[in-house]
Design a protein that fits this description.
Distance between the termini: 41 Å
Radius of gyration: 25 Å
Number of helices: 15
Helix content: 40-55%
Order of helices and strands: EHHEHEHHEHEEEHHEHEHHEHHHH
CATH architecture of the largest domain: 3-Layer(aba) Sandwich
Number of strands: 10
Length: about 350
């Protein structure tokens, strides 16, 4: 069986612009990312990281911080898509005691916590218009008020933001403020998807093998040539994060010292991944609606007078369930796809008993 010894990386001379410590990949696309990261780190300019989910935007944000003059200051990360508007506002700017139900003490926000350092605002596209106004003020004036307070707080904090959506398209759709976009987009850095840099896959596999060999007390040191070819042909919708998961699984399941094709998911090898059919497909909603209407028309009695409401509720429940599944249960993404407010979606999920489903 033919095996490939995985390279540990290229020399600085081979790679041109050398990789930044902690970042993997020597492809031309990644060397451009390293070059821009080093250039922008020497300034205090805002940075906007763009790219698909799983491309490593947080790693680049940390690299901007660690290679800057602010490296001795704090690095604070906030996932803007994980919290509702009210919670995110308090998280970012802090609050004073009694400003809302549950505010039993003063709290310092993330912007204050990142003073003299860097704040990384992930999924910035998820913020509401109200929060976008406050963020614009922080970027322009370096000041804000805590929730429920009138005292102005001044901070010296660098902002690095990230989006997995085209923010300019969000601006055109009037979901994101144009002035905030240009304030954030001083230096944009685009992170290429893994499918655009397959030459980096051997280095990434080598890195993840070392990590998971150590964690699991294994010794998987080689990769079958056919397995590496399959990894480099695969389109990687989940990018580096997906590769990381597959390498971890291969290390755990391996019985020898090599990563072979049988340790990889069928989808990587050109097959299909079996999935449980727990919910109807979106294409089945029309059929479901028709069946419910026919059932209602066939029934009789005053208890069926609310037929319209029953059909609408049932179809809406199925639609919400399917969209939540397609968005991996991320409510912010699901709300955007449905064209409704996140809080509205949260109430509907609770109403239909979907908030506890996985």
């Amino acid at each position: 069986m033919k095996m490939t010894n995985i390279p540990s990386g290229l020399s600085d001379a081979q790679a041109g612009t050398p990789p930044i410590h902690g970042l993997i990949g020597s492809s031309p696309a990644m060397r451009k990312v390293y070059e821009l990261t080093r250039q922008v780190a020497r300034s205090n300019a805002s940075v906007l990281l763009l790219g698909e989910t799983g491309t490593g935007k947080e790693l680049i944000a940390k690299a901007v911080h660690q290679t800057s003059a602010r490296a001795s200051g704090p690095f604070v990360r906030v996932n803007c898509g994980a919290l509702s508007e009210s919670l995110l506002e308090s998280e970012l700017f802090g609050h004073v005691r009694g400003s809302f139900t549950g505010a039993v003490a003063n709290r310092t926000g993330r912007f204050e916590a990142a003073h003299t350092g860097t704040i990384f605002l992930d999924e910035i596209n998820s913020t509401t218009p109200k929060l976008q106004v406050k963020l614009l003020r922080v970027l322009q004036e370096r000041e804000f008020e805590r929730v429920g307070d009138t005292q102005t707080v001044r901070v010296d904090t660098r902002v690095v933001a990230a989006s997995n959506r085209d923010l300019l398209a969000e601006v055109e759709a009037e979901r994101f403020r144009e002035d905030l976009y240009y304030r954030l987009n001083v230096v944009p850095i685009y992170l290429p998807p893994l499918r655009a840099r397959p030459e980096d896959i051997p280095e990434l596999v080598s890195h993840f093998l070392a990590v998971y060999n150590e964690e699991n007390d294994r010794y998987v040191m080689h990769i079958e040539t056919k397995a590496l070819d399959a990894l480099q042909r695969y389109h990687w919708p989940g990018n580096v994060r997906e590769l990381q998961n597959y390498v971890e699984r291969a290390v755990v399941m391996a019985t020898g010292d090599e990563l072979t094709c049988d340790l990889l998911p069928a989808i990587v090898l050109g097959g299909t991944q079996p999935r449980p059919a727990t919910r109807p497909r979106a294409a089945d909603l029309e059929t479901l609606t028709y069946e419910l209407v026919q059932q209602g028309l066939a029934a009789s009695g005053p208890q069926e007078d609310n037929l319209h409401a029953k059909v609408v509720n049932r179809v809406e429940r199925e639609l919400n369930a399917q969209v939540m599944t397609s968005c991996e249960s991320v409510q912010t993404k699901a709300a955007t796809k449905l064209g409704i407010n996140r809080n509205t979606l949260h109430k509907k999920l609770k109403e239909y008993g979907l908030d506890g489903e996985q």
